[in-house]
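Re: the request from the purification team.
They wanted to know what the chain is likely to look like in 3D before they choose a buffer screen. I agreed to run a prediction and write the result into the notebook, where they can find it.
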Amino acid sequence: RLRADNDLKVRQPLSSLKLAGGDVAGLEALVEEELNVKKVEFVADETELCDISYKANFKTLGKKCGPKMKAVAAAIAAAKVIPFECEGFTITADDVIVSRAPKSGLVVASEGSIVVGLDTRLNDELVAEGLAREFVSHVQAMRKAEDFVVTQRISIEAGCDEVFRAALEKHLEYVSTETLAVNVTFTDVKDDSIQLNGHAVSIKIGKMS
């Protein structure tokens, strides 16, 4: 959901997922693979991921607090821990609207006591891997559209710019393994090009005996 809400492509690797309040110890490799992140990092407290502020939930507090509402609202805004006692009332999680402002470079989401943060900062290495993954996804779609059997070896001709070519060459073993490509050759971009992550790319695949 964090990826969708923040326009982060699922095939773009991210450097880390930071987790506060959850326990997936021993399952890090599974989480990394499924969420396409390089590592899972555990943090002691959600304040390492975001700045937290509290506001009074007037829907729940209005009738309960009456004329003491202003004082209660001020206490909630200054609170560090929920629940707490104020003006003779017990202020619970239902009485508080929590806002979380992510730290720089992060997007965050929470559910109950669990808070996760995705590091959205991309370096050249992550971008290159993302390009290779998008390329593989499109080739796989072409294989399916042309009704290739799953074991069919293929050749790939890729027309692309220097940046995209460098990304494919860096991850050529991955591309070849995933697509069953015996060889990958490079040409100039053809007229039937598509856009992959902002790059014009033309792709031709053929069967190999």
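For the purification team: Residues 124-145 form the longest helix (22 residues).
Please add any questions underneath this entry.
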